[in-house]
Structure formats: C-alpha cells, structure tokens
Specification:
The longest helix is centred in the first third of the chain and has 39 residues. With about 190 residues, this protein is α+β, with helices and mostly antiparallel strands. Strand 3 and strand 4 form a beta hairpin. It has 2 domains: about 35 residues; about 120 residues, Glutaredoxin.
C-alpha cells in the first residue's frame, strides 16, 4: 500500500513539472511575440489606420501618421527615441491626435499582417518619399499638414508645432481655411 501511494505521488509530481514546463514555454513565446511588436510600434501608438480614423471621428481629434523605417533609417530611430517614444510627447499629443505608426522596415516580420498590407498603401496614398515623415490628417483621411524629416528642437518644439496644427485644423474647425465652426441660427 505504501508503494502505491509513493508511485501516485511521483506521477503527480511529474504531471506538475510537465505543466510548469508548458506554462513557462507559453510565457516565453508570448514575451517574444510582444517584444517583436514593440520594435515596430512604440508604446502608446497604434498601427491600424482605419481604426484610428474611426476613433478620431468619435473623439473629435486629428490623426497623426508617423512614417518610419524602423530597422534601416537612422533619422527614424532618432525621431522615435527622442520624440515619438517619450511619455511627455505621447500624453500631450494624444489630447488632440490619434497616434499611428506606419512603419516600412526591411524586415517585414516585425509587422502585423494588417500592417504588411496597409502600410505600403498609405505610403503610396500620401506620397511618402523621405523618412521620417509625419502627416496630419482629418478622420476622413484628408491631409492637412506634413512635417518632413527629423524634427529638431525636441519634444517641446514638436508639440508646439502640433498645437498650431490642432488650433488651425482641429475638431472645432471646418474644412475650409480652418475657420471656426458656427452654430446654425434657429
């Protein structure tokens, strides 16, 4: 009887060890997958243009498209490190913009399947020929402003430039000349 209880205990221990190994492997795969995504899309940014436009429409914001070449463009890496990934930039910019990273890396494996299809289409649609490029659009996709190249001056200077865009073309402005919307007379 003692022998039977001992073998049951050993069997349970082996089962627990196998489950532990499986859980560990799953965690490692999930961590690797998340690390892969973070190389293409900085924390606080999205990559789905259509979803961003829908969100911008609902929240009364503009869409900021950041065109990058994350694994080959030195200026893009600098822009990401010094501006796009800074908490101060993300929190301030999100007040008036929905942030979308449109990455064009050489290694397409770091992109989601959606981004692999969507990003080249957006590069073509907005005529992107230099990286990094920042394009501000209305929720309809209409371009209102473009910033080419690395934005020197740091987070503060770029936020000030974006504030001017938001003030001129933001949700309380009409599509013609950035004039304030007026309520219709009753």
């Amino acid at each position: 009887m003692r022998e039977s209880g001992k073998s049951d205990t050993i069997r349970r221990m082996k089962t627990i060890i196998k489950l532990g190994v499986c859980v560990s492997l799953c965690c490692m795969v999930a961590t690797a997958f998340c690390a892969k995504l973070s190389k293409s899309v900085p924390k606080g940014w999205g990559e789905d243009f259509a979803a961003a436009c829908t969100t911008a429409e609902k929240e009364g914001k503009l869409v900021l498209l950041a065109f990058s070449g994350s694994d080959w463009c030195g200026w893009c890496v600098k822009m990401d490190k010094e501006i796009y990934s800074q908490k101060k930039f993300i929190s301030a910019a999100k007040k008036n913009f929905v942030l979308v990273m449109i990455d064009s890396p050489r290694n397409k494996d770091i992109l989601s399947k959606k981004a692999v299809k969507q990003n080249p289409e957006l590069v073509k649609k907005y005529g992107i020929h230099g990286y990094p490029s920042t394009v501000i659009v209305r929720p309809s996709g209409e371009e209102v402003k473009r910033f080419g190249g690395f934005q020197s001056g740091g987070v503060e200077a770029f936020l000030e430039a974006l504030k001017e865009v938001s003030d001129e073309f933001g949700p309380k402005k009409d599509a013609v000349g950035g004039k304030p919307k007026t309520r219709a007379a009753r």
